[in-house]
Design brief:
The chain has about 350 residues and is an alpha/beta fold. It has three domains: about 80 residues, no CATH class; about 170 residues, no CATH class; about 30 residues, no CATH class. It is about 50% helix and about 10% strand. It has 13 helices and nine strands. A five-stranded mixed sheet has the order 3-2-1-6-7, sandwiched between helices. It is globular and about 65 Å long. The N and C termini lie far apart (about 50 Å). One of its GO terms (molecular function) is metal ion binding. InterPro entries: HARBI1-like (IPR045249), HARBI1_dom (IPR027806). It holds the Pfam family DDE_Tnp_4. It is found in: Nucleus. This is DDE Tnp4 domain-containing protein.
Length: about 350
């Protein structure tokens, strides 16, 4: 984020912040509160380390982050997370056709687990099938990697299909009440089709929600997976730019929801107003002339993938002539041919 963009963001959120002069003689300025919050979201630094670097109390920093995250969402969601009109749905579909050659698509839907400290007395509600505690982030993205809608806070144990079905968006989707454009013909044909979202196998097939076909139609599945990469990229960019998603969020679910919503709003804000800086062309997946997908830089920016690469390099090194330890095979009783 550039300095002018920081000032722009500050001017938007400041009106949603409570007047700290009422409670403090020497209040912390709004610009410093915003800087503290952005550093927390962008780096994933712990609250204790963050409070030490700004010479504030941990509880003070925690309160600043929660208050500012709420203000960021309130300030940005009306403009950058507004629900599309019928004309805007058509614009989204045109972009999907132009960029991803998939007709009448108005968004790609997927879910993401946001790692969370185990809430007290929550049992297994937040324990997901991946083996950790989380809240669910369900979202739809447009062709330009911006989020059209998000639903945050469902129990981690719920499936993607269950989270979508119980959300207000999912209910309106199933009932056909999203104000989507009237059915149109597929390009170059006279075949009519409704507008729809793309999902993976975790979602139920609906008129306005199209999922892969099992065991056949390889061309269709390839084309659908290619178009669905936009939501995978949107999540990837979000996690790469806001490293808070790369660590366990050490707070209660209600506060974690505010943090996630602030990051989503900032993602759309920066993707819309400072795209070249926030996600340059090389940062996202692209398709070569041969049809092969070229991975974007956000994939290399993920700490887990870098760590996995380092581990694989070490594993190979320990098996090589240069890195072998004379007694390693004897100790493990595997034999020197392993």
């Amino acid at each position: 984020m550039s300095a002018p963009k920081f000032d722009d963001l500050l001017s938007r959120v400041i009106r949603y912040l409570p007047d700290s002069h009422q409670n403090h003689r020497n209040p912390i300025g709004a610009s410093q509160r915003l800087a503290v919050t952005l550093r927390y979201l962008a780096t994933g630094i712990g609250l204790q380390a963050l409070s030490a670097s700004y010479k504030m109390g941990t509880s003070t920093v925690s309160g600043i982050v929660e208050e500012m995250c709420s203000a960021i969402w309130d300030a940005l969601q009306g403009e950058f997370m507004a629900f599309p009109s019928r004309g805007q749905w058509q614009d989204i579909a045109e972009e999907f056709w132009r960029q991803w050659q998939f007709p009448l698509c108005v968004g790609a839907i997927d879910g993401k687990h946001v790692r969370l400290r185990a809430p007290a007395r929550s049992g297994s509600d937040y324990y997901n099938n991946k083996g950790f505690f989380s809240i669910a982030l369900m979202a739809a993205a447009d062709a330009n990697y911006r989020f059209i809608y998000v639903d945050v806070g469902a129990y981690g144990r719920e499936s993607d299909g269950g989270v979508l079905g119980r959300s207000a968006f999912g209910s309106r989707l199933a009932e056909g009440n999203l104000n989507l454009p009237a059915p149109a013909v597929l390009p170059g044909t006279t075949t009519p089709s409704p507008y729809f979202f793309l999902g993976d196998e975790a979602f139920p097939l609906q008129v306005n929600l199209i999922v892969p076909i099992q065991d056949r139609k390889r061309i269709y599945n390839y084309r659908q997976a290619r178009a669905r990469r936009v939501v995978e990229n949107a999540f990837g960019i979000l996690a790469a730019r806001f490293r808070i998603f790369g660590r366990l969020i050490d707070c209660q679910p209600e506060k974690a929801v505010k943090i996630v919503k602030a990051c989503v709003a900032l993602h759309n804000f920066l993707a819309s107003t400072e795209r070249a800086r926030y996600m340059p062309a090389s940062f996202v997946d692209t398709t070569a002339d041969t049809g092969e997908v070229q991975p974007g830089e956000w994939r290399q920016a993920r700490p887990s993938q870098r760590a996995a690469l380092v581990r694989e390099q070490l594993a190979d090194y320990f098996l090589s002539d240069a890195g072998v330890f004379p007694h390693q095979y004897n100790v493990l009783r595997l034999g020197t041919d392993q």
